[in-house]
Design brief:
Aconitase, domain 4; alpha/beta; binds iron/sulfur cluster; 20 helices; Aconitase, domain 3; 6-stranded mixed sheet; 7-stranded mixed β-barrel; binds alpha-methylisocitric acid; 640 residues; 27 strands
């Protein structure tokens, strides 16, 4: 019996545990990545560890999210990040250099390595044959400090690709098809490993579109083999020396198998407000479109922009549509400006946006009221675009371009365009001058902190009895965008927890933060897949600051669960899902925490006079963390 690719990489990095699905393993982390919106907290936490320098092979700090700079806050954060990077031996990617996952793919990702990133789309680099996992900033801070990363060993799913994509059908359609079949919770505690002969026809940027959006399945990560296409890509990036072939062993086994026949796949589109609400484009064609946005870490590569240009050349953006595009990196922008494609797109009426996350996270380019926006992005959660009643659809670059021309939802096969297949270039433009490489000794570097950077809040050791009211009861698939919104107003407050806490659950109940404070904290009750979406630890950190003691749900999404533990909030699940109906908002709850390890636990609903069995998936280490009041307190107590 051979090892699959995932097991091969994990085995090389295993620090403790057995690779049996569901069992806790600890793995060595080679590389880390942060972005500015999660990075400030991650580095404040790294500073709190009291180390001199990062202990990873490579750590990179990107600036790509908070780029609007409507006030001093973002600029202050950028300055802090740059100085911290120089101090501790981290490469700093300056604002303007591009979106973290795209730039990392171009310049640093390496087959066979493991990376931890404080962003849920870190798996983008799985397209290069590495295991790239998204996590909260605190986990990334610990990894930078040389600590292994703890996770529950996921099941490995083989996605067997057969056949070849047909004209105007793209890599995005492969991941949309998986989302259609498996839903946004179908990937929880799973790693998706791609194989089959269909893999050979996909270039690294196409593979990365797929691994990127594996995050929307809730997957731990996704990975492609490292093969001839990988070598070709790394060579074009001037990094052939980083190539290492990496494939599953002969006779490798998998926990589950999914097959997709690329020959029969058609252009697909995810309808509002969930990435798994997928239909064929032709099923909904004709819906008027007000905006098209091309970019994000999913579809902003050189190849993507070339594909758009091949559909758009000689055409004009429809008069009722505003088309914006954000190249994924400075490299991509330079290349399309040198080969004339940028001029073609501008001639067609497209609007050039900054090389950053931009509209994907509601940082500008919001759609009009009730407008339909077709985006090449990965998430279409309600309100995320910055317009509460906008209807966001997710599709491939080819579909987005067709919609921009016709002004209605359109299958690109229906507009008479000639299909031009776009390959990766033989050589990318190479210019690393927007990276600031750290000095050999950063000890004397002064760390610059503006007034937007507030100290980290902390939590005391858990009390023997935890009690409080249910502050809010919510349904299934609550996203971290619901819990802790982003966008132009809130995102600049990421380094200031007291200020950002005022927005917790704002779209669901604007009184939440006030009530939580008045009550001295309490509980949240949720349905299944609670906390899906981003890695933002503010969705745990800010509720912790407001006094939230426990969250009781039917099930949690992976990263959010880890973040709750990291900040000392008890994540509990109902033993019987039906008991969700036995707890209402404002009920008073009580839990004895002296024997958290003996499951199930008894949650007392004082208001209703009933006992409800609840449980948790916490390991012995997690329990110690929650009891200590969070990971930082736990790590510090251990090192005393
Ligand atoms: C997102 O796409 O939601 C983000 C913004 O990139 C987040 C990180 C954050 O909230 O800072 C993510 O995906 O993890
Ligand atoms: Fe940025 Fe959007 Fe990607 Fe998040 S999903 S990293 S906001 S481009």
């Amino acid at each position: 019996m051979g090892l699959n690719l995932t097991q091969k990489i994990l085995k090389e990095h295993l620090v403790s545990g057995e690779m049996i699905p569901g069992k806790e393993i600890a793995i060595k982390i080679d590389q880390t990545l942060t972005q500015d919106a999660t990075g400030t907290m991650a580095y404040l936490q790294f500073e709190a560890l009291g180390l001199d320098r990062v202990r990873t092979e490579l750590s990179v700090s990107y600036v790509d999210h908070n780029m609007l700079q409507t006030g001093f806050e973002n600029a202050d954060d950028h300055r802090y990040l740059q100085s911290v990077a120089a101090r501790y031996g981290i490469i700093f990617s300056r604002p303007g250099n591009g979106i973290c996952h795209q730039v990392h793919l171009e310049r640093f990702g390496k087959p066979g390595k493991i990376m931890l990133g404080s962003d849920s789309h870190t798996p983008t680099n799985g397209g290069l044959g590495m295991l790239a996992i998204g996590a909260g900033g605190l986990d990334v801070a610990l990894a930078m400090g040389g600590e292994p990363f703890h996770l529950s060993m996921p099941k490995v799913v083989l996605v067997k690709l057969t056949g070849k994509l047909q004209p105007f059908v793209s890599a995005k359609d492969i991941i949309l098809e998986l989302l259609r079949r498996l839903t946004v919770k179908g990937g929880v505690n799973r790693i998706f490993e791609y194989g089959g002969e269909g893999v050979q026809s996909l270039s690294v940027p196409e593979r990365s579109t797929i691994t990127n959006m594996g995050a929307e399945l809730g997957a731990t990560t996704s990975v492609f083999p490292s093969d001839e296409k990988t070598r070709q890509y790394l060579k074009a990036q001037g990094r052939e020396q980083d190539y290492r072939p990496f494939t599953a062993e002969e006779g490798a086994t998998y926990d589950e198998v999914v097959e997709i026949d690329l020959n029969t796949l058609e252009p697909l589109i995810a309808q509002p407000h969930s990435p798994d609400n997928v239909v064929k484009v032709r099923e909904i064609q004709g819906i008027p479109v007000s905006q098209v946005a091309i970019g994000s870490c999913t579809n902003s590569s050189y190849k993507d922009l070339m594909s758009i240009s091949s559909v758009m050349t000689g055409k004009m953006v429809h008069q009722n549509v505003s088309l914006g595009f954000s190249p994924g990196s400075r490299q991509t922008l330079e290349m399309i400006s040198q080969n004339g494609v940028l001029a073609n797109l501008i001639t067609s009426g497209a609007r050039l946006l900054e090389s950053a996350c931009g509209p994907c996270i509601g940082m500008g380019f919001a759609p009009p009221s009730g407008g339909v926006s077709v985006r090449t992005f990965n998430r279409n959660f309600e309100g995320r675009s910055g317009t509460k009643d906008a209807k966001v659809y997710l599709a491939s670059p080819e579909v987005a371009a067709a919609c921009a021309i016709t002004g209605v939802i359109t299958d690109p096969r229906d507009i008479g365009a000639t299909y031009q297949s776009v390959d990766i270039p033989e050589k990318y433009v190479l210019d690393d001058r927007m990276f600031v490489f750290p000095p050999a000794d950063g000890a004397k570097v002064e760390i610059v902190r503006g007034p937007n950077i507030k100290p980290l809040p902390t939590r005391d050791r858990i009390a023997a009895k935890v009690s409080g009211k249910v502050l809010l009861k919510v349904g299934d698939n609550i996203t971290t965008d619901h819990i802790m919104p982003a966008g132009a107003k809130v995102l600049p407050l990421r380094s200031n927890v007291p200020a950002i806490s005022q927005y917790v659950f704002e779209a669901i109940d604007p009184t939440f933060h006030k009530r939580a404070k008045e009550e001295g904290g309490g509980f949240i009750v949720g349905g299944t897949n609670y906390g899906q979406g981003s890695s933002r630890e503010h969705a745990a950190l800010a509720p912790m600051y407001l006094g939230v003691k426990g969250v009781i749900t039917k099930a949690f999404a992976r990263i959010h669960l880890a973040n709750l533990i990291n900040f000392g909030i008890l994540p509990l699940t109902f033993v019987n899902e039906g008991d969700y109906d036995k707890v209402d908002a404002n009920d008073s709850l009580e839990l004895d925490t002296t024997h958290l390890e003996s499951k199930p636990l008894t949650l007392r609903n004082v208001t209703k006079g009933i006992d409800i069995p609840v449980t948790h998936a916490l390991t012995a280490r997690d329990l110690e963390i929650v009891k200590a009041g969070g990971t930082l307190a736990y790590v510090k107590s251990r090192s005393k």
